[in-house]
Amino acid sequence: MNRTEFFAHVREYFGIEPEYPWPDEPGYAVLRHPTNQKWFALVMDVPRDKLGLSGTDALDIVNLKCDPLLSGMLHSRPGFFPAYHMNKEHWNTVLPDSDVPTDTFYAMIQESYDRTRPKTHRVRKETPHEWETMQRAKMYIHKLAGGIDPLTDRPLPEDTVLNQPRLARCFSYVEILIERAMQQEIRSVKARRKNLPPFFLTPEQKQKVLLVHEPIPISKFAEALNAAADLECVQKIKATDLTKWLVQKGLLQEVVRNDKRHKEPTANGRAIGITSEWREALTTGAHYLSILYRYEAQQFLLDNLDSIPAE
Length: 311
Fold this sequence. Notes:
It is a single chain. This protein is α+β, with helices and mostly antiparallel strands. It is built from ten helices and nine strands. It is 39% helix and 17% strand. The strands form three sheets. Strands 1-2-3-5-4 form a five-stranded antiparallel beta sheet.
C-alpha cells in the first residue's frame, strides 16, 4: 500500500482528507478527527537511516496510535518500528509499502482512529486503570495462546515465531497468572469497600442525581444515586436498602401470591408516586409484578435519603 492508497482508504472509511500543516515539509500530512482535532495518523517521508535501515533515500512512513501492551509485539514484526518523533509507548511507525499484511494495516488504522476519537466521558470510579489493563492483557494473551492475531482476530501464520506450541503453552500459563491476579484484586477491592463509611450524598452531590419523568425500577434509581456519589469514599447503596425502608414506612407491603412473596405499593405508596404493573419476562415468558417509581417518588426518596440506612 502506498501513500495514495492509504489516503484513499481513510477517505472511503472515515470521510477524512489529509492536511499539510507544515509548508517546509510538503511530504508531511496529518489526519485528524473533525470534532476534537486529534491526530490519528501522521504520514511522513524520512530517510531510511532515520529508522536504522541501510541507505539514505526517503520512504513513506505512517505513525499510528496503538495499545501499549501490543507495541513490543509489533516491533518484532517486519515493517513496524518504535514511533519516529512521537511517544514510543503509545505510537508506532508502520511502513505501508512493506511486508505488513493489508488487513493488519487496516486494523492498525482503525485502532488508532478509535483511540483518538472523542470520549464519551463515562467514568467508572470503581474500575481502576490497572484493572482495565489486566483485562486487555488477558484478552490478548488468550488470543495468542489460541494462535489468533490480537490485532486482526485472524489465525497467525504458521511460520511466525508467535505461533509455536511451546510459546502457546507459555501464553496459556501467563493467562492463568493474570486471572489469578484479577481475582486477588477483586477480593482486595471487596475487603477495602467493607471498611468504607455507609452511603451518603453531600448537598452538592444530591443536585447531580438524575431524576427522570418516566417510571423506573428501584434498581435504576439506586444506580442514579451511586453515579452521583464518590464511591471511593463511601459504600454503594443497594436497591434493597431503599425497599426495606419503604416497607418500614408503610409505603410498600409484602404479600404472598401463588406461594411467592412480592412487594407492592400501599395506598400511601401510590400517593407519593409508586406504581405497579404486570410484565412478561423476555427469556421465560413468565409474568411478574414490576414496581415502578415515578418522578415524584424519586424526589421523595432523594429528599429522605439521609434517613435511609444503608447496610
